[in-house]
Amino acid sequence: MTVTITAFERSPDRGNGLARDMRVRWALEEAGQPYEVRLLSFKTMKEPAHLAIQPFGQIPTYEDGELTLFESGAIVLHVAERGPGLLPDEAKARARAIMWMFAALNTLEPPIFDRSLVRILERDKPWYEERLSALDEIIRKRLEGLSSHLGDADWLDGAFSAGDLLMVTVLRRLQGLGLLEERPNLAAYVARAEARPAYQRAFEAQRAVFAASSAG
Ligand code: GTB
Questions:
Q1: pLDDT tens track for 38-95
Q2: Which residues contact 127 (CB under 8 A, 6 or more apart)?
Q3: Domains (ranges, CATH) in the chain?
């Protein structure tokens, strides 16, 4: 059965791999699972056909035969459970890898994503600078904890896992802002992950979509 995911027809990040289809593409590449992509405009995302599979009218989604999923974390977990390379076999190590998936999505991603939204939506508000500083402080604390845990290791818990995959997709949103660069071991961790062939294939695939949408 062919796996089909959804992604932006024209991503607002201009092919930078920051939209959440990137983590799903990357997981599928790591697992060696071929996939197809259905591209959606902002308009078609809110139409009944897509709302029937994603009640919030968002990307990404995942379809495989009779199974349809939304929520990028749930999709990555499903891919990781079905394919090789993203979750350890040993039960305790597997539980810890899943713990890091939740840490990425529940502890790191909220303030990092909020920061991006504030920069876009609240730039002209009187509270802008104060709100940005407050978020930066929270993010710095989270990065401090992550950096201490990682230390000199390559990955968060032994071998590369879906926990690293999600964590790196979240940390990438900070690249170039100074916050990640303040923690050299985290910047190196992201670079190490980005050097993985599966990451490169996923990145190029989503970049090609944006390039095609801009051509002509
Ligand atoms: N919790 C859901 C999940 O993890 O799957 C969140 C899904 C989500 O936020 N999807 C976004 C979406 O469909 C795209 S990824 N938005 C359209 C809408 O809500 O109408 C978020 C995103 C968008 C753009 C950038 N960017 O330009 O840098 C980065 C991330």
A1: 999 999 999 999 999 999 999 999 999 999 999 999 999 999 999 999 999 999 999 9
A2: none
A3: 3-85+198-210 (3.40.30.10), 91-196 (1.20.1050.10)
Q: Kindly report, residue by residue over 152-178, the tens digit of the pLDDT.
A: 999 999 999 999 999 999 999 999 999
Residue 28 CA to residue 210 CA, distance in Å, equals 20
Degrees to nearest 5, angle at CA 132 with 11 and 170 = 45
Q: Whose CA is nearest to atom 2 of ligand 1?
A: 71
Helix (H, G, I), strand (E, B) or coil at 105: helix
Ligand 1 atom closest to the Cα of residue 113 is 30
| Phi and psi at residue 155, to the nearest 5° | -130, 170
Nearest atom (ligand 1) to Cα of 11: 27
**CB-CB contact of 14 with 47 (8 Å):** no
